[in-house]
# Entry
Amino acid sequence: MALTAVSVAALATANPLIEYKSWKTPHGTYPFNDIRNEHYMPAFEEGIRQGLKDIDDIVNNPAAPDFANTIEAYERSGELLTIVEGCFFNLTNAETNDELRELEMKLVPMLSEYSSSILLNEKLFARIKAVYDRRDALKLTPEQRKLLEDIYEGFANNGANLSPEQKDEYRKLTMHLSELTTLYGQNALQATNAWTMQVTREEDLLGLNDDTKAILRANAEKRNLEGWVLDLKPTTYIPVMEDCANRDIRREIYMAYNGRCIGGEFDNTHIIADIVNTRLAIARLFGKRNYAEKSLYKTCAETQENVLAFLDQLREAYLPLAKNEVQELQEFARSKGFYATLQPWDWSFYSKQLKDAKYSISDDLLRPYFELENVKQGVFGLAKRLYGLTFTENKNIQVYHPEVCAYEVRDAKGRFIAVYYADFHPREGKRGGAWMNDFQSQYMIGKKDHRPHIVNVMNFTRSTQDKPALLTYGEVETFLHEFGHGLHGMLTKCRYAAQSGTAVPRDFVELPSQFNENFLGEKEFLDTFAKHYQTGEPMPQDLIDKIKAAANYHAAYACVRQLSFGYLDMAWHTLTEPFAPSECMTEQQAVLDFGDRAMASVQLMPLVPGTQMEAAFTHIFSGGYAAGYYSYKWSELLDADAFSVFQDAAKKRGSIFDKKAADSFRTNILERGGTEKPMELYRRFRGGEPTVDALLRRDGLKK
# Structure
């Protein structure tokens, strides 16, 4: 790929990304203060040039192909491009702007072409295959053999065995798919940011607490408007749906949120049809029935039949109880004078009231004990009690936004383990949700261990003029979840970056994160950090008892809701014929109707015309979860089973922070990354096969 005259000229000037080997930053962290938008394109172009040269060097090596000169050389190729991508794509999610969005659209086809040119390089694949065919005769470690097999299968699954004509078609399809999924994600973010609603009468906000109203007031002041401004960020949407007594406002914000990207400037419905048909076309090139069959071959579940059987098993267990929960809430609403059929914008409002009536517990009661700084110390303290880790803020580590905090992580012996970045609050340039990523993966060259740089990005409640950031119970749970992913990335001890940390199948990657959430229901953990932000008093025993008692509240409804997302995902990705609307429907109507039918077997609330989550379902249409959303429930089965080991240990040895169990979880799960088949790692930790029993017990379906 030739460099343009402009990019050649740009290379002549200082570009910190290209000059990454001269960084003097702590632990080789990114010099964010020096990186400008104009640095990215020249750095990407140079990274592509160097990456292609690395591949040429492998292909043209006169020595016979072996593990070192072919497999290891390939795994470590494209170092500059990895550096540039690590910065750019983290920022397009956490701190983007119009210029970066425009640049992203230009880069997607470039990077897709680069990837295809490597994966479809016949000479490179011939060398890889030559090593693969001799694998039994080579004296490889299990880690090396797994890397060899993964690389070979990665090439085979990305077209290396296709005919020349099929390779050309595959190249076109993957480039088109990259463009579509990027545009889909950008539309979802922009649609979320575009919607606001001004409220000028305070009585219309009846039920919202002072903290939420302060956030809405600040939204208005930022826009030079009177009153209060609602938006679609979680810190607005969730409290409005739970607390606002004005049903019309709840309905309006619900329709806006769940109607995002259905028609209008940021319409995604036509993109969905194109995405699924492109994925199906790719699957057919490989002789597969559908995209799910192509996607699932390396997961724990392995086949679409196993996935659907798993979803069906949970549906049979949870759906009857979920229907009872809906009926109970309908009767409760009637007791409050609401005689209409509950609509989706009523669920959270009355569910919170019923929960309070049953358990006398609410976020307003819990928030004062979940001040962000205390929660951070609690979450960090959990890592110390289980794994001996300490987190020390280092202000010399540059960050990509002033709100981000950077920490040095060390083990019990004071050895450096990782850099950890924490980014807690919503901003215009940040997409919704919460996630973990890495700026640098862990890997080894010789005896030199390059430790990882991990980031957790969240969208938590901000502080107000008179109160610090006080989190909801759900936000604390989310922090623990993403921090669990972070621990998976920080504690990894692998030789190859391609296998380190979270480089595991989708239906295994959620195990460490969801496992971490379990501690929030334990008094022993809450006692370490849950203190009133004003008085310093620990959370009282009666409140902890209420948390415990309320742990299974509407668990069946929540499970069935997750199943609906899994069924939707599998419906789109088990299509064996291209999706096309019937003559009597527009494409938009057909897409929405397809989604409604896919979720019909687990539909608990009335359908609302003009809404369908698939139009902004970034996990499966722009993220990495296509034919894989079921993995959250699959991992939930594993996390409940894994946590039962700690519960059993607590009964025997008196503490939920059991060192023996933690050491086993760390050694067999967190440190090993993708160096072995995931279920072999799990069985080594567990000492046997997981069962659904622990999950059913945790959710109150089994004694």
Observations:
- The first strand starts at residue 197 and ends at 199.
- Strands lie at 197-199, 228-230, 390-393, 405-410, 416-423, 435-440, 443-445, 448-450, 453-457.
- The chain has a mean pLDDT of 94.
